[in-house]
Design goal:
Blueprint: H1 3-18, H2 34-54, H3 59-80, H4 92-99, H5 105-123, H6 131-152
């Protein structure tokens, strides 16, 4: 690829993000409530992770999607409970989960440690993602998401669609 080709590709990408999407993602296209948007992003991340698990590979992406789905689910719970989440780092959301009564400080500490010790390691390739790790982090993300949906009694979850 020449630099002119990169410049053309960059211009196309810049242009694309300035336009309204031609074929918007189903389930997210008409959501104006930022709280529900977080829930539905978690739904889509879990769906994508399950798709990749079924293809038996892409473990690093599945781990990343699962951790982000956990963050989005917690964010939805916190905001649906009437609490604000100001700008945050990835791990601050766990403390907001404690403050909103979703889980204990011990669970928050363990989630944060799991993220710091494993998400970053997998993402930056200092550790190798594997099938068992993928299965367990995906199960954690799914269980936490289901708990949030049950506790809030929301009907806006897309997971059963």
């Amino acid at each position: 690829m020449t630099s002119k080709e990169i410049e053309n590709a960059l211009a196309n990408a810049e242009d694309a993000f300035q336009r309204s999407p031609d074929n918007p993602e189903t389930g997210l296209e008409f959501v104006t409530d930022p709280t529900i948007l977080q829930l539905r992003k978690a739904c889509r991340l879990l769906d994508a992770a399950q798709f990749l698990i079924d293809r038996n590979g892409h473990y690093t992406v599945i781990i990343e999607a699962s951790f982000v789905a956990i963050e989005r689910s917690i964010q939805f719970y916190v905001e649906a409970s009437g609490n604000d989440i100001p700008g945050q780092s990835h791990t601050e959301v766990y403390e907001y989960g404690v403050q909103a009564g979703l889980f204990s400080e011990d669970v928050a500490d363990r989630l944060e440690a799991l993220w710091q010790e494993n998400r970053s390691e997998s993402y930056y390739r200092t550790g190798i993602a594997g099938e068992y790790r993928v299965q367990t982090i995906y199960q954690l993300a799914t269980k936490l998401h289901e708990e949030v949906v049950n506790l809030t009694r929301t009907t806006d979850c897309l997971c059963s669609d």
